[in-house]
Amino acid sequence: MARQQDTILTPREREVVSLVGRGLTNQEIGRQLCITTSAVKISLHQASTKLKARNRAQLVILALKKGAVDLRELYSLEEVADLLASLGPEATETIAQLMKQKPSQSR
């Protein structure tokens, strides 16, 4: 059984995963964080190993699901609101219904 510590990302890994979630390349992440592309790759590999992710997309999804990265680290509230607005009224209504169900399901 894996220790809980094994799934906790370091601050650097969290930063890198968050930037991957924003769609940045390894080179762009390196420039933004003032680290080498090799350091970015190492952080991605370590985070992927900890979360058992097979690729970048799965890494971001698992990091969000497991609470290793918070959605607010990827996008601002305004960006999330813009994204939801772009989905149209039907999607927005579905999301609102799901959010209403979530608290009652966790009881």
CATH 2nd-level architecture of the largest domain: Orthogonal Bundle
In terms of quaternary structure, what is this? Answer: single chain
Which fold name corresponds to the CATH topology of the largest domain? Answer: Arc Repressor Mutant, subunit A
Tell me about the largest β-sheet.
none
Compute the average pLDDT. 87
First and last CA, distance: 28 Å
Number of domains: 2
Q: What share of residues are in beta strands?
A: under 5%
Shape: globular
Radius of gyration from the CA trace? Answer: 16 Å
Percent helix, as a range, is: over 70%
Regarding CATH, which class of the largest domain? Mainly Alpha
Task: Report what the structure shows.
- The two termini are 28 Å apart.
- With 107 residues, the chain is mainly α.
- It folds into 2 domains: 1-74, Arc Repressor Mutant, subunit A; 75-107.
- α1 packs across α3 (37-51).
- The chain contains 7 helices and no strands.
